[in-house]
Amino acid sequence: MKTSIIIADDHPLILKGLNDFLLEKKYNVLASAVNGKEAFELIETHNPEIAILDIQMPFLTGLDIAKKCKELNWKTKIILITFEKDENIYNEAKNLGVYGYVLKEFALAEIEHCIDSVIKAMPYFSPELLSYLEVEETPKKLELLTPTELDILKLIAQNKTAKEIGELMFISNRTVEKHKSHIIKKLDLAPIQNSLLIWVKENQKHLE
């Protein structure tokens, strides 16, 4: 059985389409909800690995739920689906440690790839969204990094784990994590889960 998932959207056709698609792909869809209150209760009840949530829902938005899950330290990984191409919403999602952000018009084309990425603890943000927002950190920040830190970033961009990076660079996991901590400070990233991964994905072209 594949990854356990709950889904929520206040548009019945979108909800049904997503549900049918995930079932066809053999994902373990535990339940679905038509508003944010129901979605939050389903996460509390089922403790799914992933919750795919519409951002704009009655009672609680997808962002509200992500915030509550973060405050409660729940392990469910949040994927947001939306028509919104709004930089403020995108930034708030990043700050809340949301794992995925998929635009609805590309949902069926991207959701499976997004889920597979999230399962590996790799954030996924719709390429169309990043392109639309022209998301790009100042490359000058890279000048603050040492050659070793740049090498670590390049390996992160290749989806290498801390253990794999350590083996490739002949250093311990602890040393890798220490370097990553220094990189996060130098790049002035929010001290939240996945902030470095997201930055690397957004700035991968500068690391090649």
UniProtKB/TrEMBL annotation:
Organism: Formosa maritima
Start and end residues of each Response regulatory domain: 4-119
PROSITE patterns: HTH_LUXR_2 (PS50043), RESPONSE_REGULATORY (PS50110)
GO molecular function, one term: DNA binding
Protein's name in the database: Response regulator transcription factor
Modified residues (4-aspartylphosphate): D54
GO BP terms in the entry: phosphorelay signal transduction system; regulation of DNA-templated transcription
InterPro entries assigned: CheY-like_superfamily, NreC/VraR/RcsB-like_REC, Sig_transdc_resp-reg_C-effctor, Sig_transdc_resp-reg_receiver, Tscrpt_reg_LuxR_C, WalR-like, WH-like_DNA-bd_sf
Domain HTH luxR-type: residue ranges: 138-203
Protein keywords: DNA-binding, Phosphoprotein
Lineage: Bacteria, Pseudomonadati, Bacteroidota, Flavobacteriia, Flavobacteriales
Alphabetized Pfam families for the sequence: GerE, Response_reg
